[in-house]
Write a structure and sequence with these properties.
Isopropylmalate Dehydrogenase, binds nicotinamide-adenine-dinucleotide, alpha/beta, about 15% strand, 10-stranded mixed sheet, about 375 residues, 12 strands
């Protein structure tokens, strides 16, 4: 039966993937020259990318002049081009991206299921093709003493086979969810290592292992194995439903420090956390693998802002924050700290929310540029 063949093929591919994961490549060392590729994406992407590149050009003026850093624009990661080529990430775009050391990426649109023409999410494709397994998202709320770091597994869970479900009949459809031991081990290790390196005392594993006993059960047990190597760090398990509530519990939430979660829960809860911080427009993220890394806003292309003619009210802080995380990743810590300070000040003084009542993208960009 066709469905059986499809399922067997998925199992075969995932077993091969597990073997590849076990032979992990050596971590990259940056060379004398670092090439930062950037793609603007769709919707509000070009507006916030333009603002971020202006900030980087000023902040890194010396490094750009000496060619220690190169900023390379990569065209073609637009919904129009992707639909025309019927590819989530066209081959020539992916090849260009692979020539860069790191990628700064504007948000990209993914058509919803049921659209006439459909393609996979560019992000899911890039995360898989570049093996960017750790989605790292910081959320800070200084007034409340909140300093959260989320480690969302980026290449498995409900997403890796999200476009490979089976439609048995008009009445019966399946999607698949995959958790592997090596895939979980590397994200758990990244979270515990971050905790140790940054003096954090607690790692919270978020699952629904009471219901999804196989996949989430494996995620939890592998995290517990890794935790044994970090005896100074307290580890606990929260189920995703109560976790979403606990993030709203102002009496308790500041006690959480580092979170590690499968893909879907991480996707959902980091938007909630970003809203607590001041809106998705303030939140940046990193997608890190052993060879490549990609930095982006946590939000999407915001088509509603475009439709309402409010694109100029989009907050570029999300992508500027991503650029700050990127600078830290490539070793420019002083520049990252400087940008973090000014970005924090800018967001306290200038409110940009996507609403006409508040400021525009240009207002906060000019403030940052003037204070760099
Ligand atoms: P969205 O994140 O694009 O926007 C939701 C709402 O958040 C917007 O209507 C707006 O009110 C607000 N918002 C988002 N960014 C903002 C900013 N910078 N400043 C101010 N307000 C902002 O979510 P969506 O509407 O669910 O998704 C739109 C498209 O983006 C979809 O095609 C989706 O697949 C895609 N998407 C892409 C990424 C990515 O590229 N990493 C991530 C999520 C969604």
């Amino acid at each position: 039966m066709e469905a059986e063949q499809h399922f067997l093929q998925l199992v075969k591919e995932q077993l091969e993937r597990v073997e590849r994961l076990k032979n992990k490549p050596a971590a990259v060392n940056f060379k004398d020259q670092i090439v930062i590729g950037y793609c603007s994406g769709d919707g509000i992407g070009p507006i916030i990318t333009d603002a971020t590149i202006r900030v980087l050009q000023k902040l890194l003026a010396d490094e750009l002049e000496s060619k220690k850093i190169v900023l390379k624009e990569i065209q073609g990661l637009t919904i129009e081009n992707r639909l025309a080529k019927n590819m989530a990430v066209p081959d020539d775009v992916l090849a260009e991206i692979k020539t860069c050391d790191v990628l700064l990426k504007g948000p990209t649109t993914t058509p919803s299921g049921g659209s006439a023409k459909n393609i996979e999410s560019a992000n899911v494709t890039l995360r898989r093709e570049l093996d960017l397994y750790a989605n790292v998202r910081p959320v800070i709320l200084r007034d409340e003493g909140i300093d959260w770091m989320f480690f969302r597994e980026n290449t498995e869970g409900a997403y890796v086979l999200g476009s490979r479900g089976i439609e048995i009949s008009d009445d019966l459809v399946f999607d698949f969810r995959v958790i592997t031991a090596p895939g979980t081990e590397r994200i758990a290790r990244a979270a515990f290592k971050y905790a140790r390196d940054n003096g954090k005392k607690r790692v919270t594993v978020v699952t629904k292992s009471n219901i999804l006993k196989k996949t989430d059960g494996k995620f939890w047990s592998v995290c517990m194995e890794v935790a044994k190597e970090y005896p100074e760090i307290q580890v606990d398990e929260y189920f995703i439903d109560i976790m979403t509530a606990k993030l709203l519990d102002t009496a308790e939430r500041a006690s959480f420090e580092v979170f590690v979660l499968p893909n879907l829960y991480g996707d959902i809860i980091t938007d909630e956390a970003a809203q607590i911080q001041g809106g998705v427009g303030t939140a940046g993220s990193a997608n890190i693998g052993d060879r490549y890394a990609m930095f982006e806003a946590v939000h999407g292309s915001a088509p509603r802002l475009i439709e309402l003619g409010l694109a100029e009210y989009a907050n570029p802080s999300s992508l500027i924050k991503a650029a700050e995380i990127m600078l830290r990743h490539i070793g420019f810590i002083d520049k990252a700290n400087k940008l973090a300070t000014i970005l924090g000040e800018a967001n306290q003084k200038i409110k940009v929310t996507g609403n006409v009542a508040d400021s525009k993208c240009l207002d906060i960009t000019e403030y940052i540029l003037a204070n760099l």
